[in-house]
Design goal:
The complex is a heterotrimer of chains A (372), B (511) and C (391). Chain A is α/β, with parallel strands linked by helices and 372 residues long. Chain A is built from eleven helices and 14 strands. The chains are: A alpha/beta (372), B alpha+beta (511), C mainly alpha (391). At the B-C interface, helix 1 and helix 17 of B face helix 7, helix 8 and helix 14 of C.
Amino acid sequence: MLKKGWLVIICIILLTGCWDQRNFKNVKLVLTAGFDLMEDGQINTTVSLPTILRSSDGAGQERIQVVSAIGRTPRDTRDKIDRKISNSFAASKLEVLLVGEELAKQDLYPPLDVFYRDPRSNLNAKIAVVKGEASEAIRLKIEQESRISKYLGGLLQAMENTTHSPGENLQLICAEMFEPGQDFVLPLLRVNEEASLIEYDGLALFNERSYTGKDLDQEEAVLMMLLNGQKGKTARMTFKVREDGKQRIMNYATIHVYRSNSRINVTTSGSNVTADIKLHMRVDVIEYPKNHLETVKEVKKIKKELKKQLTQKSEEIFAKLKDTNSDVFGIGRRVAAYYPDVWKQLDKKNYLENVTFNPDIEIVIQQHGIIN
Amino acid sequence: MGFFRKIFQTGEGQQEKASGPSVKEPQQPSFLKLSANIDYLTKALKNSSDLKVRILNDGKAALLYYESLADQEKLQKKIFSQIESGRWEEVLDLPHGKHTENLEEALKTLLTGHAVYVQEGSTTLTQFEVTSQFNRSVEEPINERVVRGSHEGFVENVMININLIRKRLMHRDLTFQYFRVGKKTNTNIVLAFMDGIADPNIIEQVTNRIKSVTSDAIFSPGYMEEFIEDAPFSPFPQMMSTERPDRAVANLMDGRVLLMAEGSPTALVLPVTFFMFYQSPDDYNSRWISGTFIRLIRLMSFIIAIGLPAFYIAIIGFHYEVLPDDLILPVKGSINEIAYPPIVEALIMVIIVELIRESGIRLPQPIGQTIGIVGGLVIGDAVVQAGLISNLMVIVVALTAIASFVVPSYELSTTLRILTFPLIFFAGTLGFVGIVFGMLFILIHLCKLESFGTPYFAPVAPLRIKDLKDTFVRLPLFWLDKRPKDAKPVKSKAIGESREWTKIERQQKRK
Amino acid sequence: MKDSRRGNNSQPRTNTSRPNGNQKNQKKQKLSRRQFFFVIIQTQIGVGILSLPYDLHKAAGKDGWISLIGAGLVIAVLLILIWLLAKRFPDKHLFDYIGILLGKFLGKCVSLMYSVYFIFVASLVLILYVRMINIWILPLTPRSVLIVLMILAGLYIASSSITVLARVYTILSVLLVFLIIGFSYVLREIQLIYLFPIGTEGIMKILQGMNAGAISFLGFVVILLVYPVVKGTDKEKLWTIMTAHGFVLFFYLFTVFISFTFFGSEELKLVPAPLLYMLKAFEFTVVSRIDLFFLSIWIVSVTTSFTSYLYMSGIGFSSLFNAKRQLPALIVSAFLILFVTFLPGNEEESIIKFSTWISRGGYLFSGILPIFILIIAWVRKKKEQGSESSC
């Protein structure tokens, strides 16, 4: 039998066609790509292609090439880009995918289809919406950052860690795109041309598969994430807790959410849907310029004020959601799961309007740093 | 079933063939006449110049011996001291003499270094053992060093080796059987086993196989190995060679059989399993936790040694997607300007390493080390500078080479390095799929392989969970109370209750 | 000479299956019950595993997992019947007693049908495996290379005794543990709510789903061929069969559960290989794209179930021609498999048609025929009397 084994090996050596060999050195890696919608409905793809020049000791200089092409579909633009660059285009290590605002306002699935269909694509790529054009963000020259993908990837990762964005990747939004009664948010980026920076600008609210044009601002984003039980590594919020400070700075307190727990409970009566959102947080006060947190009374006061503010803010979030029918909390899916009959009667387009949200926020201040 | 039948039948066939010639031992009764006896012997020994014939007692007696084999001092002490004192008759009756009336037998003993005393008018030939021995001292074997434990090693003299074993294993069940193999070389082969522990079937099998060897020359156990192993076409060694008496004894006590040959310091252990090659006496001499750790590292080295270059090629040539984001650009940067495809790179590098290794062994030691430095550092660095081979490939191949030397057994280490090649080809053709098939073929082969009727890949296939205690890990010795079952020991219990004292002491404390 | 010994020995030896038992007659190796267990599960878990959640979902919507449990229970009953059949002939396998029960001619016909069926299943396994590999990692590699490699691996395993086959299966089962661990990683991202509302898809759909579920269990027919060479009493063997079945059911349920809860009902419709697809989205610090590693592990699973079918068809052919040695029969079946594999072509439609026909055949050969044979055995009161008649 062993002879047979050797025979196989010999045959293979002789037949070696290396049919599927794609030498890594012969590809141009695309680490960041951006899609924009042109006025005539075509897609404009912009990619940044890093090239590392080898030096005798370790990795050497890095050069970035930004190429864009306009075509009918993303695949079409890929092929067009391929004709402009040396080696072949490889999107399989894509790290960040940016979608221009206008394109996002349309159905988001079609431009992403190519990623879902290709076995080589990286579904782990982070995705974000850019206010304005995605190509602007990719073309941005940033002195201090070696490459845009690292910058964007790092930025989005940091936002995920600080509970500013849910850390969606291509795969994770897919289920939410298709599932009725559940919507998603994507981090929204803004290009700051003067400072030559890219800024996180809140969360873009999606309804079904398209961007509603409305956003949650940065602070709302954190609270929304906490309400939805998606705390990142840290979560911080600053609130105005008093009016009587001598200086403006004295009116504020920053809390650090140490642990949070949220529970969403959906009940129906007739076709009225009520969502009780219970958020329990254990927080540390990490900045309180007014100081003097000596007494329990003082702490209680802050706590009360914080609770008020948080509830108020969450009401604002709910209002925005209702306005856009962006069901980030998946209320619709819950109704469909537990009350399928009620779900059938609901108006799928605008059901969120009639949902009553009851936020119930509980906070425990467990420490306030090493001074009072 | 057919497989076993085949083995069984060929075994029987060999037995018949073997028993044929061995029955006809040549016989030649000795003559009464002294000269006839001497003539016969000198003629049979082709008048070799080193054969000495000392005529004694005015031509009435003669002493024959090879001056190259006999020890003059022994001759003096045993025979000439008697002769000088003039007691001729007593020479025949000296207590250390052995009588025979068969000239052919005398001839054989002459060749082993005996002196033969012949007297006029007597058919009795007296043989005296006067063999001179030139022995290397018992030293630690270079290729099986240990940190703690015995530093003795086998030498070229089989009697000393037996002595080393007997000293460690003073039990009446320890049995040695001698065989003369090699029609011309007449090499003394010794089979050692523990009667009552070793499986009699295996002993019978080994005996049959040894007897069936009809080669003219057998120099060392390595020669025997190819004649008697089950699957000579397999890349895996099916007998383990060792130069350490302590290792030999440990294996005897596991119910295995030892094969030694005169003139070679290597003993062959059989039957073996794959995992035995990864055990070292060091494991048992150190604490069990560190023993386990080191053994796990050794087994990991197996995977690295055969699979790492293939894995790297598959990634670079086929599936670079699996590189994590942070690694992708450094890797890309290092291979971007390499001229050759990864498979060529790997082959060049692996062959360079083999060249350096081989030249390092052949050259005298001080130069050998220089070669290592020149080869390893200078070539390695220059080849990267020149852009022929990426620095990652150098890392990969160097790591592979190091990993292959971790195996305590030299044979298996060579096997591992050879097995790298087919896997490299598989990976270069089909990527991960190729590696999977390559590994699968190796694994199936290991599962199929049998060493003297015992599965080679035991205790993993067939799985024996109890024996795993001393395979991937090395649990405390008092838990290894059963002998491993792969050698089919007759008596499986090895350790009785040995830590009873803990209970007793605890009871005493309570009182 | 050896065979007669086997006949005599197997009866008293059944209950002395302790480790000491295998010392004396090493020439006549039998499978341990653990090996039996792994032979069953490795035969059952194969190509289907990657697409099972999709198939179930397609038939029964999000209640597919209920169908799977249902199918598991039905199969459990079937397994008891099969055990009753196998138990009647403690020293014979399926092809041996078909002839006794059905008469020589009819027996040969049924044996031939079985062998042909095994060949078709084996080629279906090959077709689906090659398709998956072509789609996922090696789009340009010729199908024939992948097929020939797999056949050679199968032949290499099957060409020696069943004990070696069982050994290989046992050690390869370690990989299943890796699969389970890897899939467990996905548990972080699942949403249980996708399973709700439970049971709203309707009984009809759930029953249809049972069809898809039952197909994934079909490898159990291997029991009929391996049963006689397993150590242990009949009861112990039944226990082994049932635990193996339980394990496979658990494994399937686990995969179905995570893919249902990961993708949600709507997306799952788009993903024919959900298990791979969901791993694609994860990245670890050391490696990313673990789907490629899992595909590799899956190839091994495919090899084992392919080998089982190859082995079974080999037994079938050798008993058909009363051949003493099995290797020629194996090679013949390997060539037949190679031939059949190229029959349906590369088009998706014809492959689906091919696979539907073969899974229908599965009901006949794994369900109806064994029961039929069992009934005949009952009616004709044929039963092997211990060591009286041995092959």
